[in-house]
Write a structure and sequence with these properties.
The protein is α+β, with helices and mostly antiparallel strands and about 90 residues long. It has helices spanning about 20-30, 65-85, and strands spanning about 10, 35.
């Protein structure tokens, strides 16, 4: 994490196998990352992918709440706001 400066990783994705999901969840725990996911929905050009579908059942087993994610994003935002020089400063 210190090298790549990652805050989150896409754990849940329709083409991730359960093995990949488990691996990414291990990275989440090891490096204190925010787990994210997507349905890969990009409109009608991808048949079989509906908006908000195609998530893994394991997503229910993730021990993180919306409040946890928002708190973490606020922490990250605070760090970035204090570490990135703004134009003109």
């Amino acid at each position: 994490k210190e090298v790549a400066k990652l805050d989150a990783i896409e754990v849940f994705y329709p083409e991730h196998s359960p093995r990949f999901v488990e691996f990414y969840l291990q990275l989440v725990n090891k490096y204190d990352l925010i787990p994210t996911g997507g349905s890969d929905y990009h409109g009608e050009n991808k048949p079989g992918l509906a908006l908000g579908e195609n998530f893994y059942p394991i997503i229910e087993d993730v021990d993180i709440t919306y409040k946890d994610i928002m708190n973490r994003l606020q922490q990250v935002r605070s760090v970035y706001e204090h570490s990135i020089p703004l134009a003109g400063n």
